[in-house]
C-alpha cells in the first residue's frame, strides 16, 4: 500500500479541465482547490497504476504548472504476518 499527497499549481483558466482529468485517474482524489489554481490531492497505488505513474501523468496534464509531493506513506501488507505474536 502506498498513499501520498501532493499540491498542484494549475493555470486558473484551466482549473476545471484539470480537475476533470484528475478525477479520471485511478487512485487520485481531490481534497481541496482554490480559485487561484492550487489543488490538494491524494494518490493511492492501484493494481494497475503506481503512484509514480500518477505523478508523471499529472505533470503531463495541460494547465498543470507544478506537482509537489508533500506526504508519503508506504506499508508492505506482507509484513503483518511477521509482526503477529505467537502463543507458546
From TrEMBL:
Record-level Gene Ontology MF annotations: signal sequence binding
GO cellular component terms listed in the entry, alphabetical order: cytoplasm
Coiled-coil region list: none
Cellular compartments annotated: Cytoplasm
Keywords: Chaperone, Cytoplasm
Pfam families: NapD
Principal subcellular localisation of the protein: cytoplasm
InterPro entries cross-referenced by the UniProt entry: Chaperone_NapD_NO3_reduct
Biological process according to GO: negative regulation of protein transport
Similarity field: Belongs to the NapD family.
Subunit-structure text: Interacts with the cytoplasmic NapA precursor.
Function field: Chaperone for NapA, the catalytic subunit of the periplasmic nitrate reductase. It binds directly and specifically to the twin-arginine signal peptide of NapA, preventing premature interaction with the Tat translocase and premature export.
Protein name in UniProt: Chaperone NapD
Annotated source species: Dechloromonas denitrificans
Native organism taxonomy: Bacteria, Pseudomonadati, Pseudomonadota, Betaproteobacteria, Rhodocyclales
Amino acid at each position: 500500500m502506498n498513499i501520498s499527497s501532493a499540491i498542484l499549481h494549475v493555470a486558473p483558466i484551466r482549473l476545471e479541465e484539470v480537475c476533470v482529468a484528475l478525477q479520471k485517474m485511478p487512485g487520485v482524489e481531490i481534497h481541496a482547490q482554490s480559485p487561484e489554481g492550487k489543488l490538494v490531492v491524494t494518490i493511492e497505488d492501484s493494481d494497475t497504476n503506481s503512484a509514480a505513474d500518477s505523478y508523471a501523468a499529472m505533470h503531463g496534464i495541460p494547465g498543470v504548472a507544478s506537482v509537489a509531493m508533500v506526504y508519503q506513506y508506504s506499508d508492505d501488507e506482507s509484513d503483518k504476518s511477521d509482526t503477529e505474536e505467537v502463543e507458546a
